[in-house]
What does this fold into?
Amino acid sequence: MKPGLAVIVLVSILLEGCATPLLEMTDQDTGAVLQPISRSNITDVRAKFRQLFCAVNEDHGKELPDYRDCDDALHELADEDADAKEPVYLVFRNKLQVYVIPGIFGECLIDQVSPFSYAIDHMKSHNVQISVVPGIRGRASSPHNAKIIHEFFYKVEKSEDEKLLVIAYSKGTTDMLWYLGSNQYAGSHNKFDALISVAGVVNGTPLADDANSLEKKLAEIFPFGECPTQDSSGIEDLTREKQLLRLSNQKTPDHIKYYSVVAYTDEANVSTMLKDSHRRLSLVDPRNDGQVIYYDSVIPTAKLLGYANADHWAVALPFQRHKRLSGLIIRNIASGADKNEYPREVLVESILRYVDMDL
It folds into this structure.
């Protein structure tokens, strides 16, 4: 598609969607509730995680890029418990194998902007084995990626003294939940000790349900040579309709511990490329990251670690640290990621330290 035509398509899509509802009633609707964390099956550990995050930040956060005061990096909401008083020891107790599952369009960017890439390098300096799972197709359906995930982890070797953790970002969480909820892949489920969702699409997002969604149209029409569509665009699996139905029908393994880090921020802190979707989601709830509403990003039965003050890209994708990107589309996306600074090294280290202590 020529750049000029792409601009015309983008404008027409935006104009089409201005007056349309994001969600509609369908025959696939499920019963659902919105509850305070204290009344749900979620375990609230925000205060403990904040204490650990602040300890890491104070110890060496200023030596790392995108430094922020911990109270600016994490939202503190009215119902968060008082500060934890337990001592914090920055020592890993377990031998960890950690794998990252990328989100939608992940393989389109993976060679240039990989999720948590600098944070991965940082953790390797702490002798943590961590890497991105190869071969995930962000533009494919979650059932398609579930098979890829199974085939990868079926071959992974894990010793008795190791803990295997997965950090799933965005649609990577959706794909992991499909995989863990599928009995046909139970042969590899027993290797996992923890799943950590970061800005994960758990309940779906109204943006995917919106028939005129920019994301849906782009997933269908843009000819990414490095990441062609597979069995579908991948967007359908992010709908509220499909995700809530899946959550009601599938059960994930009980032996795995689940954790969620949610992202949201105000419009002033949202990158230009995500502002329109942030505004549209704000018609439902302003506490969103430009792609997902904050209460749609928590795994059932999970421990809620915290709310990152960042948009959907800033929390995971270091666009602004890459100054020499190739490809017109990727360069345009990167130029629109202009609120991209976030202490991802501190975030990932804090996540892994908390889970390590909790296992």
Notes: The first helix runs from residue 3 to 17. Residues 1-17 have pLDDT under 50 and may be disordered. The CA atoms of residues 67 and 332 lie 26 Å apart. Residues 36-358 form a domain with the Rossmann fold fold (CATH 3.40.50.1820).
